[in-house]
Amino acid sequence: MTAINDVTDYALDGDVGVITLNSPPVNALSWRVRDGIALGVAHALADAAAKSIVLICDGRTFIAGADISELGGPQKGANLLEVMNGMEEATKPVVAAIHGTALGGGLEVALTCHYRVAVPSAKCGLPEVALGLLPGAGGTQRLPRIVGAERALELLTSGRHVPAKDCFAMGLIDELVEEGKLRDGAVAFARKIIAEGRPLKRVRDLSEKMEAARGHPEIFADFRKANVRKFRGFLAPEYNIRCVEAAVNLPFDEGIATERKLFMELITGPQSAAQRYAFFAERQANKIPDVPDDTPLIDVRSVGVIGAGTMGGGIAMNFVNVGIPVTLIEVKQEALDRGLGVIRKNYQRTAARGGITAADVETRMGLITSSLDINALGAVDMVIEAVFERMDIKKDIFGKLDAICKPGAILASNTSYLNVDEIAASTMRPEAVIGTHFFSPANVMKLLEIVRGAKTSKTVIATCMKLAKKINKVAALVGVCPGFVGNRMLSQRQREANALVMEGALPWDVDRVLYDFGFPMGPFAMSDLAGLDVGWSKETSTSSTLREVLCEMDRRGQKTGGGFYDYDDNRVARPSPVAEKIIQDFRIQAGVTPRAISDEEILERCLYPMVNEGAKILDEGMAIRASDVDVIWENGYGWPVYRGGPMFWGDQVGLGRILDKMKAWEGAMGEVYKPAARLERLVAEGKPLVGS
Ligand code: 3H9
Q1: What's the 577 CA to ligand 1 centre distance in angstroms?
Q2: Structural contact between residues 418 and 451, judged by C-beta atoms closer than 8 angstroms
Q3: Whole-model pTM?
């Protein structure tokens, strides 16, 4: 074996030269890896004994893409495009041997090899779109030449990781080799190429599928139309589409030039910077400074969920989806039946769309045991309580769980704002108690706020963080304070939205500004969707808020055909004259003369106080770091990821500007606008929130 550089080895296996990359954790294309490939290929070409070449990786995966931490920085080492051209032009066949994931630049490298083999568990994809990018190393030109324009559009704009079996079916992979025997399989394949005298297959030379799509601009028009909502606000999907258009309509080298130009635009732009930041922020959120990686974990093999309502049912589905059996508890048979019915319907809907099979529906339902008796939770490894947000009820349940559950079981509450320490105090084992705040619909939303109580053990924290990943959630650890991080900041926005309406804006003005900013919907449309009567009761209603009056008029949101908006039978919203009249009456009653409020003011009033609250949250240690706050807002509240979360966005706006506004509003409107100490400090020091 010959060491090519510190991350690359070369060995001769009979008449096959094997280049092995080893750059943990994911063999990303750092400059050392690029150098290693270039030097390794040159070495193999110069080795007279090698008739063909295999490119393979050690460790958990094939190349998982460009090194994202190097992207946008100064160029160092070999140029990737030149390295790839060198491979494609090689006079001996090069075979990529894929395990784990061949992603982004990794798949692009494989596409410049003459052949590709993979083990069945491997996955391939071009996920650059999720980083606000497009594949910048020929991927947009080579992929469509293999899979066709339509499929390339779908793969490039979804960025999904495609299982090897499907890659084989679409021609991306030439041969599947036995699991665990990649190297042997790849070497045998490379030998077969020589024995059969197969040509040096260069993807760039394939033209059939591009010719078939040429003269059919409707392919692109239809695709754009079908995805308008999904791509709203994002630049990268459109740029990926333009690259496929170039692949179809231009010669290869011109297509590459288009790809380069658009890639450079994206990589130097603000959206990709925000999306790359989000990538690392999500991973950083898993790191808890005082909970080391080797903290012992609890093996969670069974879960109990208390409450079969919308939340409880959704939570149960998360576990069942990954094969963890759930015991679902309710107080009444009727509620249990209803909850199970909803879960089944959800699965059936997924099956109807082709996401899972009919057999999967039964397997998953089969993993749920239901009971009206909380004593059924004696043997489970973890319980998640998802009942009403009432402290007395929660305390009662946790008191019972303390008596019922086996030692070592995790006792979690899905509370969205109650004090986890108070809940923990109703047990003799507060170290086992933790908050797991799921977001509705819990089977869909990515975020999981994990709430650390004063006494929660490190083992329980570490286990919940790992478990979150297992059930495909993005987790962030937060501290005990009203509303934790997400809802605490949301209440700032809600307060301002309400205040703006009293001052002269209308709900649809506020909603439009926030929608245009990139949120999926504004706060009033959101309230209508959730139901204005959440937490409202007729008996205690005093007509003292807009919401109360609307509920009293039975305008309780979308479900009653009206709330802030009026809804037609298809739930299409129109501004409601009724709501507007109520607003006017409130203003008259309060002696307010409405004033014209600009879109800019609406945005600042809604979002600057959130940035300020985020800074207070950091001051109080309720979030570990600013990027965790951003992870929460991007994954749980629809903050547009291309703007990087409220903390990142605050830095872009300029903390000085935000501080000035907060001070002015504090002077004019009072204490709630008081600037966070951290904001004052950072402005004085000229430092950003992210990293503070
Ligand atoms: C690209 O390729 C552009 C090209 O077109 C070329 C242009 C010229 N770079 O996710 P994990 C780190 S863009 C740097 O927890 P998993 C990650 O930060 C790229 N670092 O593991 C983490 O570090 P730490 C296109 C990377 O098993 C550690 O590896 N490619 C990269 O759950 C483990 O990561 C992508 O977008 C990277 N490319 O998932 C793929 N990838 O331990 C991005 C990972 O210090 N990566 N790290 O926190 C992934 O999707 C997942 O990491 C993967 C593994 C599926 C590979």
Answers
A1: 51
A2: no
A3: 0.94
